[in-house]
Amino acid sequence: MEQSFAISVAHLRKIFGTFAAVDDISFQVEAGEIFAFLGPNGAGKSTTIKMLTTLLTPSSGRISINGYDPMTQQDNVRKSFGIVFQDPSLDDELTAYENMEFHGVLYGLDVQLRKARIKELMTIVSLWDRKDSLVKTFSGGMKRRLEIARGLLHHPKVFFLDEPTIGLDPQTRNQMWEYVKELNRKEHITVFFTTHYMEEAEKIANHIAIIDHGKIIAQGTAKELEIQTKTTSLEDAFLALTGSAIREEQASALDQLRKRHAMHRR
Amino acid sequence: MSTIYILWLRQLKRYLRSTPRLIGSLGQPILFLVALGFGLGPVFQKAGQGNYLSFLAPGVIAQSILFTSVFNGIELIWDRQFGFLKETLVAPVSRFNIMLGRVLGGATIAMLQGTIVFFLSLLIGFRPSHLSLLPLTFVTMFCIALLFTALGTAIASSIDDFHGFQLITNFLVMPLFFLSGALFPLNNLPPFMEIITRIDPLTYGVDALRGTLIGASHFGIGFDISFLALFALFLCGVGAYLFSKVQV
């Protein structure tokens, strides 16, 4: 029973001091499906992803990724998933190829397999001819493509994408989703993603969960959510469920850095 | 093993690729050697202490290792801010190996830097008197490098952003250097200075370098190196512990 779910979460909770960032959430993602995890800023999306990907210890609750427990079977969980983080996580001072190689070595792929897969994946994301360029010379879209290729290098069963299309132009965005969908269809990789673009979730996800104030407030297909809220689009359904007040979010490390650079320039 | 190696290799590649950083970090030691070596040389000689350049060169080698290794350890903050650390932390490898690879990489770079300064000092006119002890010189250099890279890593693991960086330079690295006896002899110091210099771990590094290069050690080379090695291991342990607590 458990095995048919790629991700299974029960009564998950994360408390920082007195603040419950994630407050008793439960959901399941079937193996081979595309699942969208939506919510306003600060709703608890990133905290949840961090717990699913072993970066953060839950305060309580149970998680299973590909049948493994992130608390007790950390390495099995880590081998089971690939991830594209919200902020870039490449080494700018290394070449594209070296970034891939670094990943391959960390995931224990032997030399032959590593070389073959790096070439295959970098060709798919159209970066093979730029393999020896330093990543700092890449555009935002190229970096994202490289991160996707890197996240897939060890053939994960589950692929996490945390706001993968942020800052990308529509062309790159479409191309990226085409690729992810194809991957899902051909390799049956389970995809778990977050986004603020509702039309992306509506078009791509089989199932959607909406989280707000640390709680899951609705789950289902896009159609079901629309019917439930008596609206005609996912965006309207989302707004009906979460309200239209603008949320404060703690600035990410990168935002703080940008602010500081801006201050220095003045 | 391969985890440690790939992290070590990454540090080295980054270092060898940034020529400006390499050249920039050599400016300070050269300035110390030339300005102090030749500037204070006559006074030092008159005071009956011998050749100041010979006395100073081991101190400046230690200085360059100190600066490079603390900086390399601190670089962890950059990895954290720019997201690369996350990529290593979700990989199926132990945090201990990640930290060890980083520290060994940083220490190797610092040692390279110290070696370059050693050769530069030869160009300027420094002549070591005990070439047979040269292997021990390099052992000392490695211990200093390891100790302070581990210290930098430990510090970087416990602070969140760049704010602390200036603080570390001014209140840790500079005092470690100036109070280590790199620039002055350890004999006949006022009592409070004597205590301070003995607390500063770099003192024993400078002393061991002086012992192996010009045969003038205050505490004895054996004591110096044992102290450095043990303290370096201790700080690696502390660094590993603090790194295991890092959250991104």
Mean pLDDT over the residues of chain B: 93
Helix content of chain A: 40-55%
**Structural class by helix and strand composition of chain B:** mainly alpha
If helices are DSSP runs of H or I spanning 4 or more residues, what is the number of helices of chain A?
10
Overall shape of chain B: it is elongated
Structural commentary:
The complex is a heterodimer of chains A (266) and B (248). Chain A has 266 residues and is of the alpha/beta class. Helices cover 41% and strands 23% of the residues of chain A. Chain A has helices at residues 45-52, 74-80, 96-106, 111-124, 140-152, 170-187, 198-204, 222-229, 234-242, 253-265, and strands spanning 5-16, 19-30, 34-38, 60-65, 81-84, 158-162, 190-194, 207-212, 215-220. In chain A, helix 6 (170-187) links the parallel strand 6 and strand 7 (190-194). The relative contact order of chain A is 0.16. The model of chain A has no long low-confidence stretch (mean pLDDT 90). Chain B is an all-alpha fold and 248 residues long. Chain B has one domain (2-244). Chain B has 12 helices and no strands. Chain B has helices at residues 2-17, 19-39, 41-46, 52-74, 76-81, 84-89, 95-124, 134-158, 163-178, 191-199, 201-214, 221-244. Chain B starts with a helix and ends with a helix. The A-B interface holds A 53-56, 74-76, 78-79, 81, 83, 85, 87-94, 98, 101-103, 105-108, 150, 253-254, 256-257, 260 and B 2-3, 5-6, 10, 13-14, 17-18, 80-93, 161-162, 247-248.
Keywords for this structure?
heterodimer; A: 266 residues; alpha/beta; Rossmann fold; 6-stranded mixed sheet; 3-stranded antiparallel sheet; 10 helices; 41% helix; 23% strand; B: 248 residues; mainly alpha; elongated
